[in-house]
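Need a sequence for this fold. Nothing fancy.
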C-alpha cells in the first residue's frame, strides 16, 4: 500500500490555512470600510457627534464618540474574530486554548486598547483645537515618544498580562544564549521562557524590550522539539536585528511614513470634512472619517513597509549565520518552524509582495542550505 508524503500533506494544509486567513483578512477589511462609510454617509456620525458634544465637555465628547464607534466595530467584527482567532486555529490543530481563555484574552486586549487608545484620542483632539493647521507636528512627535515608551514597557507591564515569564531552567542553554548575545554586543537582562503551550502548538522565540528591559524570550513549545543548535540559530536571527539597529531604523522609517500621512491628512481633511458637512476637525463627528482615513493610509503603505521588513529579515538571516556559524542549523530550525506553525513555504509572488513581512520561508530555507553547502566545500 502506497504511503503519502507527510511533508507534502502538511504543505497542502498550510496552503489551505493561508488561503482561508487571506479571505478572512479581506472580509474584515471590506467590512470595516463598509461600516465606516455607513457611519459617515448615513448621517449617523454627525448625529452621534452632536449628541456627544451636548452631553460631554471637550475633549471627552470625542472620547465618547470613540467608545461608540470602536465598540460598535468590536461587536460587529466579533464573529470574525472568534472564527479567525479561535475556531480556525483549532480546526487546523494549532490551538490549545479554551473558549474561556480566548474570551479572557479578548477582554484584556479590549481593555488595554481602551486604556491606552482613549486618552490618546483625547490628546489628538486637544491638538486639533490648539494647533488647527500644524497639529500633525506635535501629534507625530508624541507618536514617536509613545512607541519608544511602549517598546520599553511591553515586556514589563503588558506581556505578563497574557503570558507567564520564568527564568529558563536549562542553565547550559541559558549560558549559551547569553554568550551569543555577548558576541552580538547586545546587553540583555536574562533568558526567560513563556508558557505558549497554554494557547498554541506553534513555536517562537525572540527578544523583548529595549535598553534595560531587553530580554531573550523562548516559548516553551520551542524547547520541546528543537536542538540547542537550532534554538541558538533562531535567537541569532533575533539578535541580528538589534546588532543591525533594525529597531531604531524601523522606528525612523515608520515615523517618516506616519509623518507623511499626518501631513497629508492636515492638508486634505478640512476639504473632506466640508464636503461631508462635518463642522470642523475637532468636532467628535470627524472621528469615523479619521479612522477610515488612517485605515486606508495603512493599506496604502503596507507594500513599502513590508518590503522594508523583508529586506531587514534577509540581512538578519545572513548575520545570524555569521553569529552562530551554523547555516545548517538555521535551515533545519526554519523548516521545523514552518511545519509546526503551518506556514506556507512558497506562496504566490503577489501574496509575498503585498502581505508578507518576512521573505517566503522556502526561500530562507534554501538560502541557508546553500550557505551550508558552500561552507562544507570550503
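Here you go.
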Amino acid at each position: 500500500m502506497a504511503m503519502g508524503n507527510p511533508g507534502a500533506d502538511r504543505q497542502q494544509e498550510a496552503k489551505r490555512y493561508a488561503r482561508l486567513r487571506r479571505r478572512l483578512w479581506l472580509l474584515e477589511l471590506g467590512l470595516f470600510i463598509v461600516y465606516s462609510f455607513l457611519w459617515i454617509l448615513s448621517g449617523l456620525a454627525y448625529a452621534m457627534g452632536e449628541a456627544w458634544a451636548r452631553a460631554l465637555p471637550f475633549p471627552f465628547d470625542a472620547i465618547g464618540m470613540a467608545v461608540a464607534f470602536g465598540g460598535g466595530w468590536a461587536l460587529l467584527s466579533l464573529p470574525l474574530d472568534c472564527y479567525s482567532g479561535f475556531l480556525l486555529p483549532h480546526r487546523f490543530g494549532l490551538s490549545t486554548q479554551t473558549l474561556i481563555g480566548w474570551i479572557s484574552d479578548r477582554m484584556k486586549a479590549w481593555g488595554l486598547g481602551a486604556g491606552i487608545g482613549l486618552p490618546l484620542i483625547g490628546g489628538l483632539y486637544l491638538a486639533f483645537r490648539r494647533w488647527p493647521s500644524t497639529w500633525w507636528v506635535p501629534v507625530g512627535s508624541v507618536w514617536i515618544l509613545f512607541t519608544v515608551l511602549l517598546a520599553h514597557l511591553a515586556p514589563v507591564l503588558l506581556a505578563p498580562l497574557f503570558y507567564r515569564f520564568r527564568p529558563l531552567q536549562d542553565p547550559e542553554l541559558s549560558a549559551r544564549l547569553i554568550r551569543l548575545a555577548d558576541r552580538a554586543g547586545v546587553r540583555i537582562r536574562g533568558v526567560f521562557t513563556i508558557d505558549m503551550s497554554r494557547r498554541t502548538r506553534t513555536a517562537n522565540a525572540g527578544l523583548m524590550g529595549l535598553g534595560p528591559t531587553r530580554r531573550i524570550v523562548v516559548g516553551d513549545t520551542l524547547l520541546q522539539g528543537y536542538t540547542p543548535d537550532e534554538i541558538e540559530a533562531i535567537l541569532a536571527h533575533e539578535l541580528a536585528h538589534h546588532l543591525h539597529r533594525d529597531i531604531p531604523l524601523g522606528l525612523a522609517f515608520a515615523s517618516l511614513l506616519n509623518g507623511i500621512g499626518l501631513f497629508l491628512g492636515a492638508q486634505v481633511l478640512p476639504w473632506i470634512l466640508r464636503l461631508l458637512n462635518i463642522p470642523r476637525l475637532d468636532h467628535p463627528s470627524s472621528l469615523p472619517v479619521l479612522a477610515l482615513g488612517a485605515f486606508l493610509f495603512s493599506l496604502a503603505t503596507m507594500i513599502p513597509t513590508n518590503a522594508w521588513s523583508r529586506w531587514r529579515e534577509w540581512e538578519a538571516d545572513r548575520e545570524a549565520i555569521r553569529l552562530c556559524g551554523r547555516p545548517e542549523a538555521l535551515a533545519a530550525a526554519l523548516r521545523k518552524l514552518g511545519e509546526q506553525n503551518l506556514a506556507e513555504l512558497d506562496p504566490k509572488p503577489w501574496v509575498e509582495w503585498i502581505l508578507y513581512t518576512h521573505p517566503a520561508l522556502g526561500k530562507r530555507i534554501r538560502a541557508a542550505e546553500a550557505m551550508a553547502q558552500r561552507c562544507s566545500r570550503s
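For context: The first helix runs from residue 6 to 41.
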